[in-house]
Write the C-alpha cells for this entry.
Amino acid sequence: MTPKSMNADTVGRSARSSVMNFLNEIAQRHPGAISFASGRPAERFFRPEAWAPAEASFYAHYAQANGMSESAARHRLAQYGATAGIIREEIATQLRIDHGVPCTAERIVVTVGCQEAMALCILALCNARDRVLLVRNPTYIGATGVADAAGIRVVPVEPTADESLDQALARSVSELAREGLSPAAFYLIPDFDNPTGEVIAREDRERLLAQCAQHRIVVLEDNPYGMFRFEGETVPSMAQLDRHGGVIHLGTFSKTLFPSVRVGSAAFPETLFGDADAAVALRENVVERKSFLTVNTSQHCQALVGALLRHYGGSLADHVRAPIGFYRRNRDVAIESLTAGFRGFEDRVSWNQPAGGFFLSVRLPFEFDDNALDTCATRHGVLVMPMRYFAIDDGWRDTVRIAFSNLEPETIREGIARFCAYAVDRMRNPST
Amino acid sequence: MTPKSMNADTVGRSARSSVMNFLNEIAQRHPGAISFASGRPAERFFRPEAWAPAEASFYAHYAQANGMSESAARHRLAQYGATAGIIREEIATQLRIDHGVPCTAERIVVTVGCQEAMALCILALCNARDRVLLVRNPTYIGATGVADAAGIRVVPVEPTADESLDQALARSVSELAREGLSPAAFYLIPDFDNPTGEVIAREDRERLLAQCAQHRIVVLEDNPYGMFRFEGETVPSMAQLDRHGGVIHLGTFSKTLFPSVRVGSAAFPETLFGDADAAVALRENVVERKSFLTVNTSQHCQALVGALLRHYGGSLADHVRAPIGFYRRNRDVAIESLTAGFRGFEDRVSWNQPAGGFFLSVRLPFEFDDNALDTCATRHGVLVMPMRYFAIDDGWRDTVRIAFSNLEPETIREGIARFCAYAVDRMRNPST
C-alpha cells in the first residue's frame, strides 16, 4: 500500500482522527446500548475515599525529605514546579520493579497522561519533513492523531504472510529510503495491543530491536496494559531487552490507578544508540517542548500518584491483583459468549483469546461499516468498535474490537449475545 | 527589522526558548540570592487545607445534579471524561462576571493551564506555512515558544514613535502581504503585560479590534493578571469590546487560585468574524488537538476549581482582594526602593509604575547582558530578568523585568537596594 501523507490542514477530515468524536456521538444517541466500544479501566476498583489521605501523606513525606514544615511543603507544591516532574524517583522505581525498565530518576519525564509523553516524543523525533513515524496496522489512534495534527507522515509496517515483523520493518526502511524518507520512530504496544489484544513474542522483540538499532529508529514502547496479564509467562518489556539505547518506554497510571489523575511518563535510555549526550539532548528537547504545552504536570496529581506508589512499596502488582482477576473473568465470559453465539458459524467467524489486557478482536465474513454499527446500536442495543477506525490504510473492514474491561460479566454475556444475534442474522440474510 | 523564520529544527538553539532552562540554572547556582526573576503568585495566600473539603463538595454537587450517589459521582469523575471539560458552566460564569467576557458554557474549552489553551489556539490558527503569529515586542515566551517548536513564523508588531498599535499592525500586514504571508493570530496580554507591566488603553483596544477584524486576524487575549488591578479604572477586556467575533479569551487559575492545579481555559466567540459555523469548527479543531495532547484536563483538578468557583458564588473578586493589597504594597515598596537607590541617577535610569499585575520594568543606560546577570547574582546576591530574553529581535538589551509578586516587602527593599548598588557601581565605573 502507499503510505499516506497528511498535513496539518487535513486534520478533522481524516477518518481516523474523527473516531473519538464519532464514538461519543453514537454512544450519546444510544445511552441504553451495551457498549464494548471504550477501553476504560473498571471503575469498581477505584478507591476515591483513599485519595485525599494519600495525597496528605505525600506532603508529610516531602516536608521530611526537604526539612520543612508540612504546611510549607503544601504551599511549595501548590506553586509552579520542575517541568520534568517531582515523582521521578517513585516512577523509576515502579518501572524497574513492574516492567524491568532499567531506568533512573533523572531519565524520567513526568507527563499529563501517557498521551502527552507520546505526543512530545513523536514531535521531538519526527522533527523534519523526511522523518516519518512507523506504526503497526491497525494501531492506537492516539499515536496517529498526534502525527496527523503535526503533518508528520505515518507509515504502517505490515508483515506479509511470509514475513516476521523485523523483516517487514527492513522492507519498509528500504522502500522509504527510495523516496528519500527516513523513519525516526516506531510506535508499538507490545503487550496486549490496543486494538488487537496481541503480544509480540520475545524473539520478535529482540530481532526488532536489532533491526531498529541498525537504522537508528527509536522504539516508542507504549505499555498501558503490561501489568494486566491473565496467564502464561511475562515477556520482558522492550526497554528491558534493549541493548542498543533505542527504546523510550511510555507509561501511564490511568489503567493501574485511575484515568482522571492524568499522570504518565516517558523513560529515556541511558544512551541513544551508544551516544549518552544524544540521549540527554533528546530528553531535554522533550522537556522544553513540554514547558510550552503544559508547563509542568499538576503537582496536585503527582502528589497523589507519588503517595500511592510509596504506599504500595514501589510496585503496583498487589494493587492490580483484583482487577486482573476481574478482567480475566470478563475475557472468559466474552469468549464463552462468542463460542455460544457463533455456534454453527465457526468456519465463518473467528476471534483471538488475548492472554491479558482490555481488548479482543472478532473477524466477520462481511464488512462492518457505519450502517452495521448503527443497526447494532438501534435494533440490537449493542455497540462495538469497527477495527477500520484504527487502520492506517483502507483495510480491516471485516473486524471489530471488543473492549471487555469496564462491564460486569452478566452485561458482557448479554451484550455479546446481542452482537452475535446481529451477525448471525446478517450472515443468514446477507441482502438485508 | 526583519521578521524571523524558525523551523522545528532550531528549537533549543534559539535564545528565547532556552530562557526557562537558563533561569533555573542561574537560580540553582545562587539559591541564596533574592530573585525578582520569576512571576509567581504569592504562596502566602494559598489555602491548601481547604482544598480536599472543597473537592469533596464538588462531588456532592455533581451527584445531585446527575441524580446519582456521591460515591458513584466520585467513581464516574475518576474516569476519562469529556475532552472540553466538565466545569465549563462555572468557568463561563466567572469569565462573564470578572472579565465581562460574553461567553456561554458550550464555548469554553477547559485546558491544562493557560499554556495549553494558548498552544492549541496557535496551532489551530497558524496551520499553514503562510499563516504567521503576530506578537508584541517584547512578549511572553510561552507564546513564542509554542510557535518556535512548531515552526510557525513569529512577527512582532512594533509601533514607531509616531504610530499607534493598530497603525503598526496595518503596516505589518502590508509588509507580510508582499512576502505572501498572512497573519492568522495576534497574541496579546492587554492587562499588566508580561513582561512590561503595561495596559493597552480602551481606545487602542477598539482600534486594534477593528483593524484585526478587517484582516480576519484572531486576537488571542491572554489574561492572567486582569484581576490584579491596584488603582484606576478597569479597562474592558478585548473579548468584552469585541463586536466582530475576533477574540479568543485565554484564562488561567494559576494566579487567582494556585499554579499546581493546572487549569485554564479558552473562551471562543459566538461567530468567527460573523460566521457561526467557522467558530464551531475552530473550537472543535482545538478540542480534537487537545484529545491528542492531553486527552482531557484532570477531573481531579477540575473538581477542585469547580468547587472553589461555586464556593465564591462565581466571581473570584473577594478571593483576590487580599492578594491585590499585598501586590500593591510590593509594587509601592519596589518603586520607593528604586527611587531611593537611583537618587542622583534619575536622568539615566527609568522605570514604569504599573497599575496592577506582577511586573515592572527598569531601563538602564548600559547593556544588561549575561555578565551583568552573573555579577548581580555572584557579587550582589540579586537576580533580575534581562528583558532581551523576551525580545523577538535583538533589542531590549538595556532593560530588565522585576517581578514583585512573590516576595515579602522587606525582601523587595533589600533586593532592589542590591540591584541599585550594582547598577550605580556600573554607571560610576563603566569599564569594570
Remarks:
- Chain B touches chain A through 67 residues (CB under 8 Å).
